[in-house]
Amino acid sequence: MSVDTSAPGVVTDLASAVAAHVEDGMTVAFEGFGHLIPFAAGHEVIRQGRRDLTFCRMTPDLLADQMVAAGCVRRLVSAFFASGSAGSLYEVRRRVEDADPAPLEVEEYSHYGMVCRYQAGAARLPFFPLRSYAGSDLPELNPRIRTVTDPYGGPDIHVVPALNPDVTIVHAQRADRHGNVQMWGILGAQQEAAYAADRVIVTVEEIVDDEVVRADPNRTVLPAHAVDAVVACPRGAHPSYAQGCYDRDNAFYREWTPISRDPALLQAWLREWVYEVPDRTAYVEKVGAERWRSVAVDERLSGRVDYGRRYAPQEAAQ
Amino acid sequence: MTGPLSDVPPASTEFLATVAARELEGKQRVFAGVGLPTLAVDLAVRTLNPDLELVYESGVCGARPEAMAEGIADSVLVSGAAAVVPMPVLFGYVLQRGHVDVGFLGAAQVDRYGSLNTSFIGSWRDGARPDVRLPGAGGAVEVMANAGEVVVVLRRHDPGALPDRLDFCTSPSPVAARAADPRAVPRGFGLRTLITPKAVLRRRDRFGELEVASVHPGVSLEEVRASTGWDVAVSPDVVETRRPRVEDVRLLREEIDIVRLYLR
């Protein structure tokens, strides 16, 4: 890589970024809808021993199970409490069903409810309306889901409150050294969650030259003005995936179910794969070449688009 | 669709997926979930409706996967898709705007009006801890409110899964929405078709009750009634559910789920 990352700015390492921005008791969003889940950053938060976090995520996934089991999380703000098709998040379930080994506060919405909360937060609006909840028990379960009178004469409509995380953490395919972040594939609610936050940490597969970003500005999901820290963190989304870089480790997701079911196994897993692993580079090495081959993807390039450029006066005259 | 019929049992995934696939004949755009709906949608594209547009909750529209998806956010859904849109677009402009004709949902409990529980088994009010923490709403409440109609496939048919009263109403039918606020009923028909291991139940009216439309081969109407948690209505023209064709089962086993992820 020819990029000069020594210049002062937003480029940093993961341990420094987490130490600088994530404090005990904060509200932290980790977004990425089944894709680009910021596992490496989550593991660093675990290693630094953060406590009492309000953990926000549309679909908690294994990352929530791991961070809850590590004792980082006091409150879970979410819409779905399973691991996609792969099964239950047993650490989350133990805490919710039996307060074992400790209770977990849950603030529950639907997926669109979470999206609307981030949208309101991003635009610094107080709340956001949606049509989902008439007749549902969700507003009784979560009294922060309310109704307002439509001032234009329509029926009352449900609203959800703005969500403004202290920190939002996302993973992306690439960024330049200024913090302009590009991603492709499933984009989830990363843009909304980032703009909703006070501070934003982005881990990326690679840091690229400015010209790479400027050659395709429509692919920039987070402009540098919205980003506080950028960290080069190849394979930082494993066991989830990064479109075009490596595929989801479906085998690991299946392996998680028995680990999650047994608290002792889960704690042993955290020791082996988080506490005793200094950083993502060591994790990548520990995962091993064979496993990386199993999630390797073949090339399928996009076409190119022509952004055009205006002729300079002397060119136009010719 | 003609051809010799298969004798796979009615509770099998092959049987249920084929019955579910038939619901997609003549539809334009389906919101497909993971698991059995993945099989049903793929089978429908191969047999009944090659132009069906597949929309996934992850924001993928017009998916054309080269391999079977292992989840709604699988990378194979993205490569070669017509569009990938972010969440506010998917939920706000595609779904709530009304572009989805059929939504596939799962549930732990379904009531007579087609409201769904995917949240809790047991009590939850007044700070009680539930017996079972189910996955929760996800996007199901949005699909129920905004899809043209909803199809649910249940893997059980007993009074626990089809109770007189839900333990928790996650995704309300138009009947439940109207009871809450007669002016705020969302656009969707709600649940139109419920497919169980014993029968197919349908609602003919947006504010009506489920009634038994067809009973699977080898299952009696009495058994269906006794297995339902309320005094279930029966359509005057109830029939036996048409079996899958041998070709449907072959496609599912040999071309769609070749790794046997969903077929056991």
UniProtKB/TrEMBL annotation, chain B:
Gene Ontology MF term list: CoA-transferase activity
Transferase as UniProt keyword: yes
Pfam families: CoA_trans
Xref: SMART domains: CoA_trans (SM00882)
InterPro entries per record: CoA_trans_fam_I, NagB/RpiA_transferase-like
Protein's UniProt keywords contain Transferase: yes
Gene3D superfamilies: Glutaconate Coenzyme A-transferase (3.40.1080.10)
Entry keywords, A to Z: Transferase
Family the entry assigns: Belongs to the 3-oxoacid CoA-transferase subunit B family.
Name used for this protein in its record: 3-oxoadipate--succinyl-CoA transferase subunit B
Organism of origin: Marmoricola endophyticus
Native organism taxonomy: Bacteria, Bacillati, Actinomycetota, Actinomycetes, Propionibacteriales
